[in-house]
Amino acid sequence: MNSAQPRILSLTEYEPVRLAPPEISLAAGEALLRHYANQVEVEFPTPKTDDQWQLRSLGWVGHIPLTPELHFALRPKMPLANIFRMLEYAYHLDFNILPGLVDCQSLPEFYERLAHLLARRVLDRGRQGFYRAYLPRAEELPYVRGRLDVAQSLRSPGQIKLNCHYQEHTADVADNHILLWTLFCIARSGACTERVLPAIRRAYRALQGPVTLMPQPPQACLNRLYHRLNHDYQPLHALCRFFLEQSGPGHQMGRQKMLPFLVNMARLYELFVAEWLKAHLPDNINLNIQEKVNLSQTNTLQFEIDLVLYDTHTGATRCVLDTKYKTPGIPAHNDIFQVVTYAEAKGCREAILIYPTRLPQPLDETIGDIRIRSLTFALDEDLEQAGQKFRQSLLD
Q: pTM, whole model, 2 decimals?
């Protein structure tokens, strides 16, 4: 096993970087193109690039462990503290429970400290006893347990074992499946140091006995039912959703497989704007997020609108909004046509495109009877102040 520290190459969002051929082997360049083409644009050495590698991060931030010897750090253009605040809103994470979290100097450090927090909270819950529920079971037993299936027993008179239906009080439930799978992904991610890994392993072992390891999608953390017996699982599942959404499948084989930690900034911006608006809109406006709209009776032509604002009292649609994590000189025609289609489908006269930086040529035009504007929810300044400016422009 190679114990040497990997070499880390840094890429900043959308800024092309050129590297001499010795910096990246041909095999590493091919692996980067094959497995991370959506995250990093790769141009091989050619006369066009002055016989150098040219790499460009495509709106993702995080860490890619390409090989044991070579890692990539994808860095944001905005202040790192703003990303933490965006994550706090988007994933309903309460950063007050871990003082100093937003003072982390890098995303890997942030990831590690959140992982440590999750492990500690799982261990605390384990000392109290993991949540259990009664689940129905049907089994052939040498004794009667619960309700005997008489009809089945009569059909097999020579059978020694009895068909029983009963309720089992078990911790092997979905609430705990999410925790165990998340800890499993974190433990093999390679993103945590030996300062944190022992706690993660202890938490994993505490769950591993009574709980079955089962793959869980990030969506499993949403819309769950919480009550007095499992209410403390809600922040745990919020953390799990963050880890499961930011972890992708590793491409390396064997026991040393590592997972990348990657944040899709376009998706994060979309989630953040939605959750910020939900928390700050006045009472006379309702917000729908990712509203599905059908344009055909057969449901073959369907799309999702990022945000729709409704008048609370009348139920009328006030406007449709679409978030765009890009910095164009002017809005693209396709983006304009898209949001106008949304407005027509909802029967409203206001359509808004939201950008993370102010456009050199802001848009404010009327197409037919629909007014379309570009607004800014800036990410390069204090987010609360930027949000208030955006809210004022939106309500005006």
A: 0.77
